[in-house]
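quick one before i forget lol
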Amino acid sequence: MSAFYKVTLGIPISLNTESRHGLTAIPGIGPSIAGAIVRERDKRMGFQRMDEMLSIPGIGPTLYKKAARYLRL
């Protein structure tokens, strides 16, 4: 099932496995931030906690709060 369909249904998508394109289904996440998420995820070998997203340039507290409800680890 595509990430866009999951977001529409309210099903969280995986922060650690979703593709760059799939992450753009999250409101407020565009291609450049999605790419930064994937790069940081690869560097860390996966996120251990959701709040680690705050270390990504372009993701501040407001965007984090908005996006976190669409994500799971």
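fyi The chain has a mean pLDDT of 94.
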